[in-house]
Amino acid sequence: MEQSFIAYIEKSIKENWDLDALTDYKGATLQYKDVARKIEKLHLIFEAGGIREGDKIAVCGRNCSHWGVTFLATLTYGAVIVPILHEFKADNVHNIVNHSEAKLLFVGDQVWENLNETAMPNLEGIILMNDFSLLVSRSEKLDYAREHLNELFGKKFPKNFRKEHIDYHKDQPEELAVLNYTSGTTSYSKGVMLPYRALWSNTKFAFEVLHMNPGDKIVSMLPMAHMYGLAFEFLYEFSVGCHIFFLTRMPSPKIILQAFAEVKPNLVIAVPLIIEKIIKKNVLPKLETPTMKLLLKVPYINDKIKATVREKMMQAFGGNFYEIIVGGAAFNQEVEQVLRMIEFPYTVGYGMTECAPIISYEDWKRFKQGSCGKAAPRMEVKVLSDDPEHIPGEIVCRGPNVMLGYFKNEEATQQVIDADGWLHTGDLGLIDAEGNITIKGRSKNMLLGPSGQNIYPEEIEDKLNNLPYVSESIIVQQNNKLVGLVYPDFDDAFAHGLKNEDIERVMEENRVALNAMLPAYSQIQKMKIYPEEFEKTPKKSIKRFLYQEAKG
């Protein structure tokens, strides 16, 4: 097959014409032929609105079927899609729309309430994703096309619309497909330019390593404006002919468990936070009882109990999946140990927006605990260190997944992609003789110990988060001393009859226990309690830079 991403989409629509494609959970279902029809209608709107190949079209809203249709219609037309996270503040959305030079903006109804069209003067029009109605139009041609859409469609396909009519844009490997912004503020915001070869290579990778068939099901719960969710909960599955269910609302553990039980997906893609929450609330309490701890030490009973716990875990995720792929952030070591102990089919991958997103992965059967797999097909990965097995260095990678660069920011591009085409990830890691990659932390988060030792705050936080009544934590350095900032699990503490002063006492006990596990140069001098959750990025990692100066 030629190296074309759009060929995957076109082939799937034609081959899976009568299969279910996209469902809004608790809502309507579109079959592949319905998606094709909607794509054609949007193409008519683009054409009438004077959208040319290479023009930018932005989309901002919660995951839903029409989000997927908008994405596919844009690419198959030959325009460039600009996905924007619906959690971004209004001025961030305005910034990205303007910086990207988007001509059209598709919005969800909740996003639209907060936006101001006058702040986005270069848009030709704003379209509501729910029903593709025009919210704002600055062009008579656009108005006319929207009002006469069915008539125009009927003229174009007088007999009726069939799969033979489908003839999409022919993409080139170096051509720009997706412009994905890593954060919302233009001063820091970098528009990652992802070419078609990156989408093709990531989709081909999924065909090579994942085990999905037409008609298989998946629950899409990660934001599609993020490359991780987009690539592995939508683009690959759509190319296979799967049936994709969108949660369309905040993915709380309760809603997720309910959706898994109903849909019974064949594959689960998740971020650590979701898995950890489900395990901490539904599985660990059953293992933590004294009887359970005792029984786990007895070899024969042990296997029986493990099998039971594994079965409970499998059922929590619908009981019908090949594996769970975890990515997007670091995975808690204790949770990972429990999963490994019960032989749960999980694996951890590693990637970044700049690689659309995959860098490394390994099937759960061969996956090495604590790592994040091996270099993905067509990707090269190395660690810049004199002894990459034992001394951490920066992880760099090269291959067709790597972006073209940052939009309108040549300087930032040159800082991360060197003359030989290696992308410098900013992550520190090790790589063993088999090629397994283990991440130690972000190079910009690394702290220096009193005699120049490298301290990785993520590793300390990982241990601290497993101690009693700790919900989340950040380790910061102040006056060369390490301080633990903790947001306690107040609900749990109060449920056990603790008062505020008891929580302070427990945190001091935690500090002592933590230091017993740490080398002398990374001892924690004091704990500081935070009354509310730490602010997070849309990927659910803590915005550390906000807490560096925390006074205690």
Task: Describe the structure concisely for a colleague.
This protein is an alpha/beta fold and 552 residues long.
How many distinct beta strands? 27
Q: What integer is the average pLDDT?
A: 92
Assign an overall shape: globular
Low-confidence stretches: none
Query: Helix/strand/pairing class, anyone?
Result: alpha/beta
Main sheet summary: 5 strands, mixed
Strand ordering within the main sheet: 4-3-5-6-7
Compute the CA-based radius of gyration.
25 Å
Give structural notes.
The model has no long low-confidence stretch (mean pLDDT 92). The chain has 552 residues and is an alpha/beta fold. Among the domains are: 5-16 and 30-195, Rossmann fold, CATH 3.40.50.980; 378-444, Luciferase, domain 3; 463-547, 2-Layer Sandwich (GMP Synthetase, Chain A, domain 3), CATH 3.30.300.30. α2 packs across α7 (149-156) and α8 (196-209) packs across α9 (227-240). 36% of the residues lie in helices and 22% in strands.
Furnish the topology, listing elements before pairings.
Blueprint: H1 5-15, E1 20-24, E2 29-31, H2 32-48, E3 56-60, H3 65-77, E4 80-84, H4 90-100, E5 102-107, H5 109-114, E6 125-128, E7 133-137, H6 140-147, H7 149-156, E8 176-181, E9 191-195, H8 196-209, E10 217-220, H9 227-240, E11 243-246, H10 253-263, E12 268-270, H11 272-282, H12 284-287, H13 290-296, H14 299-316, E13 324-326, H15 333-341, E14 346-348, E15 350-351, E16 358-361, E17 374-375, E18 380-384, E19 393-398, E20 405-406, H16 410-416, E21 423-431, E22 437-442, E23 447-448, E24 454-455, H17 457-464, E25 470-478, E26 481-488, H18 490-495, H19 500-517, E27 524-529
Parallel strand pairs: 1-11, 3-4, 3-5, 5-6, 10-11, 12-13, 13-14, 26-27
Antiparallel strand pairs: 1-2, 6-7, 8-9, 9-20, 15-16, 16-17, 18-19, 19-21, 21-22, 23-24, 25-26
Helix pairs in contact: 1-9, 2-3, 2-6, 2-7, 8-9
